[in-house]
Design goal:
The protein folds into 2 domains: 67 residues, no CATH class; 220 residues, no CATH class. It contains 14 helices and 3 strands. Helix 7 packs antiparallel against helix 8. About 7% of the residues have low confidence.
């Protein structure tokens, strides 16, 4: 039997992308020529390698019919809206950047250099982390039992630690009232704008030209010690993260009320990240001397409160106090749970808000029977 020819190998490769890409998109994925093509290839390669995500996008392509394309199924609204709030000069600088969401199990935002130019991405899984973190942390008009809130927190953390299956669109993990669903989604658009703005700020501030990690030293104090004004010193990489946070909040030309809305979302975002840091410390404690690329979440909150100019500082402080209280209330529960249930926590699969056939979950759904 003769070996497959070059054209046969190419056709086999195209076959992997065909269920969720258009033919013109496959051309771009197979031979990227621009940063947009490179981003499309990142998306397509991840989908092709992860069956549950593959199944989701296959359904989207069938449902979308002739109008479907993989590229158009990823949103860019939060990047565009943030970019349009900037000065014309900033927008022109950011025209050098390609941006767009990706679907990966790594819930983060990032800016990086591709062979064709700089790209900013936000993983779609961040929204799952935010949604369930909000259910745990926020106050609502209706009662949400502590057990349900704690289960939501576990789901959020499992997303962040890459243990949770990312099939929420077909297996939503529970039942929420319309009011609750709206409440937990309300902050997400501004949080995504902030994350996009944070990555844009690294570009606008010129941070990416210096990747060396150095320590900022004041007298005999290092980055993990506290200065006289109770604000910590950071190594250079951490300082850049703080600068990007503040820049992302202050650079847009928006109203005070809109900035307060963004501040609200950002404080809750960092509150959720603090619980992720706490869980990581319980699971695998990090030595205090080890340099960090990012300052701890609570320090980022305090730096924002100290540095961001707002006529509504009291309102921001109230948001911070409420979030801090909620975060602190979970730490003991989380420590105890992870101490006794770490094996269960780290199993890949799905956690739920409640048991089957309860008001917070509904009937148990079976993969490939009730959904595919």
């Amino acid at each position: 039997m003769s070996d497959l020819g070059h054209s046969d190998h190419i056709e086999i490769k195209r076959h992997f992308y065909r269920p969720f890409c258009t033919e013109s998109e496959i051309d771009r994925v197979m031979s990227p020529q621009t940063s947009r093509d490179f981003l499309l290839k990142m998306r397509a390669d991840y989908i092709a390698d992860h069956m549950r995500v593959f199944r989701y996008y296959r359904r989207l392509s069938i449902r979308g019919g002739p109008k479907y394309s993989l590229e158009s199924s990823f949103r860019t609204k939060h990047y565009r809206e943030y970019k349009m709030s900037l000065t014309r000069q900033d927008r022109e600088v950011l025209n050098q950047i390609t941006y767009g969401d990706i679907f990966t199990n790594e819930p983060n935002g990032q800016i990086f250099n591709s062979p064709f130019g700089r790209i900013v991405t936000i993983s779609h899984s961040i929204e799952y982390f935010l949604k369930f973190s909000h259910l745990a942390l926020l106050q609502f008009d209706e009662e949400v039992p502590l057990q349900v809130r704690f289960q939501a927190l576990l789901i959020a953390l499992r997303v962040m630690f890459q243990h949770e299956s990312l099939d929420f669109d077909v297996d939503p993990r529970g039942i929420l009232s319309l009011g609750l669903a709206r409440s937990i989604h309300k902050l997400i658009p501004m949080q995504l704008q902030f994350i996009a703005g944070h990555e844009f700020a690294h570009h606008l501030l010129g941070h990416l030209s210096d990747q060396q990690l150095r320590f900022a030293v004041d007298s005999d104090r290092r980055d993990n010690q506290v200065a006289q004004d109770n604000l910590p010193f950071f190594n250079v990489s951490e300082k850049q993260e703080i600068d990007a946070d503040i820049n992302a909040l202050m650079r847009p030309r928006i109203s005070e009320n809109t900035r307060l809305e963004m501040l609200n979302g950002v404080i809750v975002w960092f509150g959720a990240l603090e619980l992720k840091e706490h869980a990581l410390d319980v699971i695998c404690s990090q030595p205090s001397w080890k340099p960090k690329s990012h300052p701890v979440a609570r320090n980022r909150q305090l730096q924002i409160l100290h540095n961001v100019e707002s006529k509504q500082k009291n309102a921001v402080q109230e948001i911070l106090d409420s979030t801090t209280q909620a975060v602190d209330s979970y730490k003991g529960l989380l420590t105890e749970y992870l101490g006794y249930h770490i094996d269960e926590f780290e199993i890949y699969g799905s956690f739920y808000l409640g048991d089957p056939d309860t008001e917070w979950r509904g009937p148990k759904l079976i993969d490939r029977v009730d959904y595919y």
